[in-house]
Amino acid sequence: PLGAVGLGIVLTFIIAAVFAEQVAPYSPDKQNLRHRLEGPSAEHWLGTDYTGRDTFSRLIYGARISMMVGFGAVFIGSGGAAALGIVSGYLGGWSDKIIQRVVEAWQAMPGLVILLTILGIVRRMDNVNVVFAMVLAIGLLSIAGTSRVIRAQVFTIRHQPYVEAARALGAGHVRIIWYCILPNVFPLILVTMTVGLGGVILAEASLSFLGFGPAGEPSWGQMLSIDGREHMRRQPGLAIWPGVCIALAVFGFNIFGDALRDTLDPRLRQR
Fold first, then answer.
1. What pTM was estimated for this model as a whole?
2. Which residues, in sequence order, are bridge partners of residue 54?
3. CA atoms of 132 and 68, how far apart (whole Å)
């Protein structure tokens, strides 16, 4: 049941992000100073901000930024982690030692500081997509930690009898990795992708809260930082609703990832 609840939350945010123009009742930039800082009403379900923009519409368009950054960064991070973890775990020996020393140095770097530095440089450059830069930076920084989990699984799989049989029949390394290793590691990759989405959404919200998100576009972290902090006493919903969206998104992806892990792992499924 919790997995179904998580899937429902995830699908709700994905649909809102994809069909934001059809779902949102107003444009996220439409201003109406006559209705500034109003509470919930029939016209504005969650109230308005300090320039009269509809809060509900801005939350829906903010879901688009979070989903774009989340899925983009997770695909980059999981793809790189799968390649690095499979190669390191399958080859072993000196290759594994060299790769793991690089991974350990990679993990030792302060992630938030590096993200702030990269985005600070990108924001000063002309004709650069900040959202794409955010996706690339978060995705690359998430490779190291996930690769160690995949590497541990590959260590177990490479000594299985069917791998030894494939090697005895003359199968090459690429064929063994593609047909024997990858299919058995893919459920783990899928679960780490689902669980990692929550962390990426939190990272995007943190960067937007600190002012390093895409300028001029609504995002949940930016709404918390600009609208929520300055006008929380007069209109508490400006701080409450973006926080609720972030919490629901992270909660939904986490419990859906846990349910997916229980389904794909035979030992947990039997239990």
1. 0.87
2. 48
3. 9
